[in-house]
Please model this.
Amino acid sequence: MKIKLTLVTDEGPRDIAVTTDATATIGDVAATMQRSLAFQAGRKPMEIPSNALTLQTLASSGQVERTLLPKSLLTDAGLLSGGTVRVTQATSSASALDAHTAAAAHLHVLSGPDKGRAYPLRSGPNTIGRSPGADVTLNDPFVSLIHARVVVSDHV
Model:
């Protein structure tokens, strides 16, 4: 997979091409970008865990549009060629929506113990199940630990 982006850094914007396989996560790409920037600046690149960094998409005004989940696959994150991004620290609560991340969709529960509840979903993959590690945790004994994966994108 190849995607062309504008990467915003402290030194200003730069056009880059990201070439990776389909299994690369946003965290993998962000960590590689950070190591590359360090190398280009003449600093020794540090080993960065892939879940420590993520990407934020930026509007033409420079405002943050959304913060991508580090564990999202690049192919699922809805990142398109021509986009503008910056590398940032990932939050410790990867499933919680933050001030820079508006809900891209909502999951409405129609039956069961959680009937009537609505859960915000991020752009990209969201896991649903009983597991505390799921992005949406349900209290229904008929739901498996990781019951479903919903990918929210700009097309149906």
Summary: Strands lie at 2-9, 12-19, 53-58, 64-67, 83-89, 105-108, 118-121, 124-129, 136-137, 148-152.
